[in-house]
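Q: What would this chain look like folded?
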Amino acid sequence: MEGFLDKMNKRYAVKKYNPNYSLDKNTIEKLKEVLRLSPSSINSQPWKFTFVTQKEVKDSLALCSCHNTEKIKDSSLLIVFQVMKNIDDFEKHLEENLPPHTVEYYHARIKPLGEEEIKSWMRNQVYISLGILLAACAEMEIDSTAMGGIQPEKYDEILKNDRYTTLFAVCIGKRHEEDTNMPTRRPKTRIPVSAVVDEV
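A: My prediction, written as structure tokens:
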């Protein structure tokens, strides 16, 4: 555990990537498996993760990413996190992949909440997978940057999404030696444990 905590202390949101670095195929496959194994409420898995390594596609997405353009272009990999768009498709997905008692739970406990709450609940599952990925990258000593500053509708157009909606993206790669956001240059700041954790 001490080793993991040390790596979490060293991780940070990279602002400038080394454009000459490339992730090896084995590492990319491990990241795919990490996301596949991510937990979700009732094992619902309402997500899709698009791994973008083709330069042309990555550059196109970079131009729809506000202040994140440069880091996307220079990173080795861009992962786009998406959620199922249509509730009917989602319910069909549940029926095809989950045991009957879990599907019954969904219809009894979650579906009565209404469309807006269901979609919010589905999006929350995707954010769980983001936390898992960032922690895995820290453990694997891979640099990463989670980005909400993108234009989801344009991402969907470029990726030709029909059943999924883009929520956010993550850059993966190797920090540039001139990255000013390194903890050695800009020390990491977090609120003290006593302010964020209660014991009862």
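The chain has a mean pLDDT of 96.
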